[in-house]
């Protein structure tokens, strides 16, 4: 009797060990497959990030914040560039508040509307591009600017165009 109990315990323990081995092997293979999939996905994401980084670097080429020469131009005159950039943009946006037609935008607006500058991008220490619209017509401006020692900003329209209605 005792011998049979040990035989049954041995068979039960062997079956339990086989079950645990098969289960652990399946779990390990499943985790390994997930790891391989995640590694491949990570490689794709890293490639995507590298492509986006290069694209961002290319798009920000004409950007005042990345142009060391333009920043150095203002810093050599004693300006705090981090405060000067918003100041120049605000001065340009202040022109939207003038009565009558806009002083820089050379196009008349639709009836009952006003041409307003919407977006401003500073290219360097001398040039700005901006877009404008009155809600129906829109266009873009190429503006030069100069900051005097008294912190007065003067704008000069170089080129502009109005998109045709579609």
Describe the structure.
The protein is an alpha+beta fold. It has 2 domains: 1-59; 64-162, no CATH class. It has helices spanning 2-59, 68-76, 81-94, and strands spanning 116-122, 127-133, 138-147, 153-162. Strands 1-2-3-4 form a 4-stranded antiparallel β-sheet, with helices on one face. A hairpin with a 5-residue loop joins strand 3 (138-147) and strand 4. The longest helix is centred in the N-terminal third of the chain and has 58 residues, at 2-59. The chain is elongated and about 110 Å long.
Summarize the structure.
With 166 residues, this protein is α+β, with helices and mostly antiparallel strands.
Return the average pLDDT rounded to an integer.
90
Order of helices and strands: HHHEEEE
Q: Total domains, how many?
A: 2
What structural category arises from helix and sheet content?
alpha+beta
Q: Tell how many strands the DSSP assignment holds.
A: 4
Radius of gyration: 34 Å
Tally of DSSP helical segments: 3
Shape: elongated
Helix content: 40-55%
Distance separating the two termini: 98 Å
Major β-sheet annotation: 4 strands, antiparallel
Strand arrangement within the widest β-sheet reads: 1-2-3-4
Share of residues in strands: 15-25%
Segments where pLDDT lies below 50 for 5+ residues? none
